[in-house]
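Section 3.1: Structural characterization of target chains.
Under the original work plan, the team committed to producing a structural model for every single-chain target entering the pipeline before any wet-lab resources were allocated. The record below documents one such target. The sequence was received from the expression subgroup and is listed exactly as submitted; it comprises 805 residues.
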Amino acid sequence: MRIIALGFLAGTLLVQNADTLDGLTVAGGLGVGAAVGLRLALAQGLLRVQATRRRVGIALTAFAALAAGVAWTAWRAEVRLGDELAGALEGVELRLRGRVAGLPRASGPGWRFDFEVEPDTPGVPGLVQLGWRPEGGDADTNADSVAPRMLPMPRPGERWALTVRLWRPHGFANPASFDYEAWLLERGVRATGSVRGPGRLLDEQSATLMQQVHRLRAVVRERLLAALPGGEQSGLLVALAVGDQQGIDTAQWEIFRRTGVAHLVSISGLHVGLVAMFCGGLAAMAWRRLPALVLRMPVQRAGALAGLAGATAYALLAGMGVPVLRAWLMLLVGALALFVGRRIAPSRVLAVALLVVLAVDPWAVLSAGFWLSFGAVAVILAVLGGRVAPAAGWRGALRVQFAISFALVPLLLAQFQSVPLLSPLANLIAIPLVSFVVTPLVLLAIPWPTPLLLVPADLAAGWMMAFLAPLAALEMAVVERALPPPWLFGCALAAVAMLLLPRASPGRLVAPALLAGLLFWQPPRPQEGGFRAWVLDVGQGLAVHVQTRAHDLLYDSGPPFGSSTDAGERVILPWLRAAGVRRLDRLVLSHPDADHAGGAASLLGSIPVERVLAGQARDARERADWSERLGQGREPADCALAPAWQSDGVRFEVLHPAPEGPPRDQASGAHDNDASCVLRISAAAGALLLTGDIGTIAEAKLIARQAPASLAAAVVVSAHHGSRSSSSTAFVDATLPEHVIHSVGRRNSFGHPHPEVWARWADAGARNWRTDAQGAIVIEFAAAPGDGVQVSAVRETRPRYWHGR
């Protein structure tokens, strides 16, 4: 079973890393048939030597499992991708009927929820995600709608008739970033959109079992919040009760991340096991006191059955995520083994759980929770199994905790590029507090939501946060490293496996060296005289990371995403962490518009920045804008006054605005955008021109003021995202790039880049690139003049079969 599970896992991974599904189902099926045929021939005595026959049999079994994983995963993917939104229906107002699925999530003054569509509208997928704001506001925009009141929450299972506008799934595509399209695909959501205008409630009753479960989850959530008004940790308590984490704010998540206790506030195997132990223990206690019942069924079996029933109810209430499903499956297999009277090795139970999870959800391998959940259990089995005298009691618990914290280092670096060093200390206090105080009180409060239970739970959770917050504030709490390459990640996993072996095992002394290589590895940087730039995919905004041999610069910081987050937090900081960048030498903000400076505050609060350059604040309004973007009391240096500088053989020069420029005259027609800082970065192989949002007036001033050679560039990031008010014919002729990049958001309301601008650059001989369709654009300026410039796009170099589907 273990060989079959691992082989099936390998086949699933092959498909989920493929750029196309063409032929994979057929190839997998043929592979299964060939392996089974050879296995049958082997059973007929094709090989005489017993040992050889056994090894070949194991190899054929593994290959058959791998082929089965490929065939099953590819077939499931083809079926799910086939349930797609017809291209002709994108952006068209549609009248749909269906039911609310899952728990709605608050989104500003409105709601975001999944909607199961009735199959009466051809070309519309069965499950879509909708945003519903007052007065039909579009929830997909970055603007933050303000309304006098929130809409009433759609309840799970309710049947509605809604007018909607739908679009195919689309997310940002950046190196080492969260894949929103893959996340939607895993959940079966095949279109996103917004509700237009009021809806009509057709039926309040739930139709299916899962809809009734989600309705119960919503009721439990509301009753818990009503019983604990103003509770400081009420969001955490609700998360432990029904798996709804929207009440946990960003600051709390950061504390959990830095202390390594996030697993305690996400319903996992620990919580399911506690419920099973509680229910099974109570049932066994009552059962053994009734002789008539004991004669019908042994106490041990009765307890196992009750524990499984309680765990099943709690798993459904929690939403049956991957960690919960894994724990429930292991309990199910253990209970079945007990009833049939067979002892099954824990590793086989884990293998069965792995196989079932992959069969039910082949996309689970794309989530960090899958690897951390199964990895943690595998480590526990490795630590506690195979020993003559395994440690017990508190010594055993400490050994397991330290082993998990140590063994998950490669996975944490690969998934999050950070490792919480203080995790053992934080978990030493947090695990007992959550497991034996907070969670039992919350579980008892599910059927009986009363302050008598919830106030002590809130108080205990507050004590935990009071303990964790100072730990999280320590600089040494987290070590951050660059995203390791696959070969180094594989070596680190091998090192962990060796270190988990018994002490006398050979090769254990080599393992620390392999792990040290993982912790100290840094991605290769450009050579002296060359540089690399990433035009990140941040939607309708701009953020460009420029890297030389030893220095890093960021030009603009992207837009805000609603009122609670921005491109700095969601896109730029994760990218810098994955790239191994721990500080920025310069942050250049072209002008204070939100789509260019919206993420600045997040960056300045999270990463050291040596110097900030920005467009001059020429009036009180612009000074207020800068204070809002950067934080009160922080004023950037005027980029117009910054002299040209050199970094590692690369020249940086601000070409616009001119230092002696007079204050802006509103009557002259000059727009705020024309005060954008224009930065030219030049090396031996060519130059990159970053133009902000300048329009034709500023372009004309640049042409008149600068020598022709100082405007020539191999790559230009188009001004104002390719707006028709920029990229004049004269400016295109003055720059004559090989490539022009338009940083735009998909379906942006401005129509950027404008077709006339696109054609103008193309007619001049430049290749057009756009971030909404191609993802982040990577530009490599070689150190040697003859090697030139190379440009590539993330969606083209790292394609996946679900992109654009």
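The two ends are 35 Å apart (CA to CA).
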